[in-house]
Write a structure and sequence with these properties.
Blueprint lengths: L6 E4 L4 H14 L3 H4 E7 L4 H16 L3 E6 L7 H19 L2 E3 L4 H13 L25 H10 L16 H16 L3 H26 E5 L2 E5 L6 H6 L11 H13 L7 H13 L5 E4 L3 E5 L3 E6 L8 E2 L6 E3 L2 E5 L15 E5 L4 E5 L5 E3 L6 E3 H7 L4 H4 L3 E5 L2 E5 L3 E2 L1 H4 L6 E8 L3
Helix pairs in contact: 1-6, 5-7, 5-8, 8-10, 10-11
Length: 438
């Protein structure tokens, strides 16, 4: 944690977060009030929850730190729901403050999380738990809970006990209060072994990210395209930039790799989805696609696979605006100043000069569509233009065409028709098209 960055401290009022609050505030010193924000969330689980939020607000004020708090607007039940609501609140605060979140997770929290994930059948990547690379700061992760208590007593730091921490209805409490003590009694070194396992898993995650980076063609929120692990070109092999040994990876290793690739699109693959993606990437037919969990799909290209959100293609025509942006499904049309278009970019099929004196609309192409391509009125099927550009059938679904007075004049990204190619003496508006992911 650097003293020149802005940080949102997630403080619940418990001993761990109160120690973090005092230690970090002391480390930032006079710069703290300008760079630290305390955030506390009242889950609405009872009077103790409200008292803890009040306690945190008073503690922040005593340290001259601003405190942002929120209260659950509806009853929240269960560990997962509490965690989801709390993190949504914290991320909203951090976004508003342009800051990073700091939590008071300790070494004991890491051990408990690893055990819980093993019991839930998490894969090797999940076992890294809190050791996985993250934008969240965890300054106490290498400290034990007993170390935290000792520090609190020595420095007379007050805190609020949460009675739900003793409630065995919750999975984490059963792991902490019953399972781990029983495991330690049988194998005293078990906690250290869990931490070693988690560190190995975290190292593996980093290695997989490095391998995935060599395979990813493009990545955006909601979409990622990656070359097939065994599809290195001859030039890559000759240059020594191909991924060594990936071609011989087994199904388990490939599963870990595709999970890492999918993560770049914000997609967390479950086991079934991962297994389907592995099989599909090996044997899937070019141009085919399969559904994945969470509203995603995978599309097999010639030497790559794209994982993307499933988007319902637009079918109804939409008037194309010449003075403002027009959104059509996953496509966006925006006017550009003619003077900002370089001479080289004038041949870009994603840019066109459209006439002002005709009724312009955008619609999805249809089988049988034709476009005029020459001065003598010769036409050609739009489908043939897609084939020339090797646009897969699955990608053509919902692809827009621009019509002027009912005549197709532009297939964005593919071809401009004769009606707008010849611009002599015709005033026109420069329009650029782009595909928007996510």
């Amino acid at each position: 944690m650097k003293r020149d960055e802005r940080v949102v401290l997630a403080v619940s009022g418990g001993v761990d977060s109160m120690v973090m609050l005092h230690v970090v505030a002391g480390a930032f010193g006079a710069t703290g009030p300008g760079r630290l924000v305390v955030a506390t969330y009242d889950h609405g689980t009872g009077p103790h929850s409200s008292r803890a939020a009040d306690f945190v607000r008073h503690a922040a004020a005593s340290l001259e730190l601003r405190c942002v708090s929120a209260h659950a607007t509806a009853p929240i039940h269960g560990e997962a729901s509490w965690r989801e609501a709390r993190w949504r609140f914290l991320r909203d605060v951090a976004a508003g403050e342009s800051a990073r979140i700091a939590t008071a997770h300790t070494r004991d929290d890491q051990i408990e999380t690893v055990v819980m994930r093993i019991l839930r059948g998490s894969g090797a990547r999940g076992i890294a738990a809190l050791y996985a690379t993250s934008d969240v700061l965890r300054p106490l992760l290498d400290s034990s809970r007993s170390d935290i208590l000792t520090h609190a007593h020595e420095h007379e730091i007050s805190w609020c006990d949460d009675p739900t921490n003793l409630d065995r209805r919750y999975f984490r409490n059963r792991v902490r209060l019953d399972l781990l003590p029983a495991m330690r009694a049988v194998r005293p070194s078990i906690e250290a072994e869990f931490l070693t396992l988690a560190r190995c898993a975290a190292l593996m995650r980093e290695t997989l990210r490095e391998v995935a980076d060599t395979l990813i063609v493009s990545a955006a929120r909601g979409s990622v395209e990656a070359r097939l692990p065994d599809a290195a070109s001859e030039s890559e092999i000759a240059a020594g930039t191909a991924v060594p040994g990936v071609k011989d990876w087994g199904a388990d290793a490939r599963a870990l790799l595709w999970q890492t690739v999918a993560e770049r699109a914000g997609l967390a693959l479950d086991r079934r989805g991962t297994e389907r993606l592995v099989r599909y990437s090996i044997a899937g037919r070019v141009g085919s696609r399969i559904p994945l969990s969470g509203g995603y799909e995978a599309l097999r290209r010639h030497a790559s696979v794209e994982v993307r959100r499933c988007v319902q293609a637009e079918t109804s025509p939409t008037i194309l605006a010449l003075m403002s942006d027009t959104r059509y499904g996953v496509w966006r049309f925006r006017p550009r100043s003619d003077t900002t278009i370089s001479q080289a970019a004038r041949n870009d099929p994603w840019i066109a000069w459209l006439p002002r004196n005709r009724d312009l609309a955008v619609r999805a192409w249809r089988d049988g569509d034709r476009m005029v391509v020459g001065p003598l009125g010769r036409t050609r099927r739009v489908k043939r233009f897609f084939s020339d550009q090797r646009v897969l059938a699955s990608d053509r679904e919902g692809w827009p065409v621009i019509v002027a007075d009912g005549e197709i004049v532009w297939i964005p990204g593919i071809r401009r028709g004769h009606a707008i190619t010849d611009r002599s003496g015709r005033p026109g508006v420069c329009i650029a098209c782009e595909r928007v992911h996510g």
